[in-house]
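**User:** I keep going back and forth on a fold encoding question. It is easy to fool oneself when nobody else works the same problem. Could you pick a protein and write out its sequence and tokenised fold? Could you put it straight underneath, so I can go through it closely?

**Assistant:**
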Amino acid sequence: MEQLIIGGVIAFIVTFYAIPVTIQVAEAKKLFDVPDERKIHKTPIPSLGGLAMFAGLMIGMLLTVTITENRAFQYYLVAFLIIFFLGLKDDIVILSPIKKFIGQVFVAAILCFKGNLLITSMHGFLGLGQLDITASYLLTFFTIIVVINAFNLIDGIDGLAGSLGLVTCTVFGVYFYLAQDMAHAILGFTMAGSIIAFLIYNYNPAKIFMGDTGSMLLGVVNVILVIHFIEAAPSAKAFPTTASPAIGFGILLLPLMDTLRVFAIRIINRRSPFSPDRNHLHHILLERGMGHKAITFSIAIASILPIIFCFTLQRYGSTLIIASLIAFFFTGIVLLKVVKPRRTRMRVVKTYNSGLIEKEQQSTHAIKLVPLYLKDEEPAMVEEE
């Protein structure tokens, strides 16, 4: 337990004090995320927050995890290093989608072939059990690429990717602690410590973005945790699960399904799945008039519901739970698209009181915009024709 707290606190402190330095360097070197017609922010903002998150995670991990007792972690750290340099280059000079994809495949190969991070069984999902080795590698590669891009693509408004990452890493950290898997619990809590420090600077209005460095790092950490969860949870020392694929899917439901949905839309429209657009969940909510903070808190809270659902109803099996989660997600999307928010009609009216009359007598017009109707459909004010 002490190692969990120490790892999280170290990651928090390192990230918290590294971010102001990062902002200073970014401002001195003009390393900004410059707004354009597709982006939501209006002023140039430093985008190297992932550098501080990476420092917090690495220092926290190296000081608390015993690598000799957890051999896979040396390859996890190599994967973090590669994704860090890949993201850093993209944040500074911009990488083409194909180069970024090749880098992600390289990371997947290290995790699979050296870190032995593989999905070897479907644990009853669709009636499937143990996978043959080819199917195991293909499914694991696909999962790693999709989850990395899920966190990369959902990083569209202030605080969103960090808040979702905080929820997922904390859930995985708590589960592995209860299951007495301390190394992976430390990974979850250390990442969570870095995220909390980052969010202090990233909540709207943001002083810094995590950039591709931070979002892809978040993706790699989460895909390691979810694949390890799917493999290890059914035979855990404590709190074993009977539907680990469904629970893992439920923990990552919103970033995962939103990315797959957007990829499908782009492919149907004969575009690259990595080409930018404004079809993400947070874009839909922005179009409904919600602000950054409201969207971030709404999606973060919504991401907790399927996690509770999965852990509570795991006895019904992975197939039924995953089908329910997909139905839940698309029902929400359809409702957001179909049900339009009630808009307040505004009209220009003139108002009279002694003060205004005096002003009008000074040849000025006292007009303002007010709602046309109050709650009970009563006129808000008498309009001056």
User: Anything to note?
Assistant: The chain has 14 helices and four strands. The longest strand covers residues 346-350.
